[in-house]
Amino acid sequence: MASSENSKVALVTGASRGIGAAVARRLASDGFTVVVNYSGSAAAAEDLARVIEQAGGRALTAKADVSDAEAVRRMFDAAEGAFGGVDVLVNNAGIMMLSPLAEADDASFDRQIAVNLKGTFNTLREAARRLRGGGRIINLSTSIVGLKLETYGVYAATKAAVETLTAIMTKEMRGRNITVNAIAPGPVATDLFLNGKTEELVTRMAKMNPLERLGSPEDIASAVAFLAGPDGGWINGQTLRANGGAI
Ligand code: NDP
């Protein structure tokens, strides 16, 4: 049930599916008005917005490929037009293409840089210019930055860069009462993680942490909700690894 006491607006990128959809649902139930960004999955995004509104929340869908700076600008314009401003940015949109460096092709390198790094840059730049005072920014990294597993090189490099942007932007927000943090999940049961993996590999990776299970999108949404909500206000410039203890 949405709380009428919270009139803050949260923009969640890549919110049509997976972790982003769980984050949008959770923030809406915490009382945030939610902008549900997507790039391709329009029907899923519309369904999610409907579910949020049926539960008494407020949601707006916004199509934008985060790698397109102009589209990101228009998305912030739309959010401001509809709700007067943005208070929370969750940079969740991301893609993962795995291969050993010897076999990595230029197209997959360029696309991961475009979505994961340039996409995060595009939204951070708009947030730096426009986020309301008291705002929160939460960037999605990955625990692979710490685990450094084979085949994850390019993907992990894009997320290491996101962690660096997080730390530097924290300082650039001085005086505005805006916190900037990253969450670095371990394996989470979504298309991004499950696609292309055998059941045996999924089971093995699930047991990398001592809780011996995959994370759920809701596990990560809970961590985002903490950083976005009243209890997370003193956490700033950190990367929180949400992975059941894998590293
Ligand atoms: P999914 O593949 O399940 O969902 C990805 C979401 O991102 C979709 O909503 C998709 O929307 C959106 N998206 C993809 N490309 C773009 C784009 N160019 N512009 C806007 N939206 C885009 O991924 P997850 O939910 O698993 O991952 C979410 C984040 O969490 C990612 O940043 C990922 O790197 C990170 N992460 C995930 C882990 C995991 O094990 N799942 C572990 C660690 C980190 P659409 O379909 O509309 O294009």
Automatic annotation (TrEMBL):
GO terms for molecular function: oxidoreductase activity, acting on CH-OH group of donors. Residues 8-186 form the Ketoreductase domain. Gene3D superfamilies: NAD(P)-binding Rossmann-like Domain. This is 3-oxoacyl-[acyl-carrier protein] reductase. InterPro entries: KR_dom, NAD(P)-bd_dom_sf, SDR_fam. Belongs to the short-chain dehydrogenases/reductases (SDR) family. Keywords: Oxidoreductase. The keyword Lipid biosynthesis does not apply. SUPFAM superfamilies: NAD(P)-binding Rossmann-fold domains. It comes from Rhizobium aethiopicum.
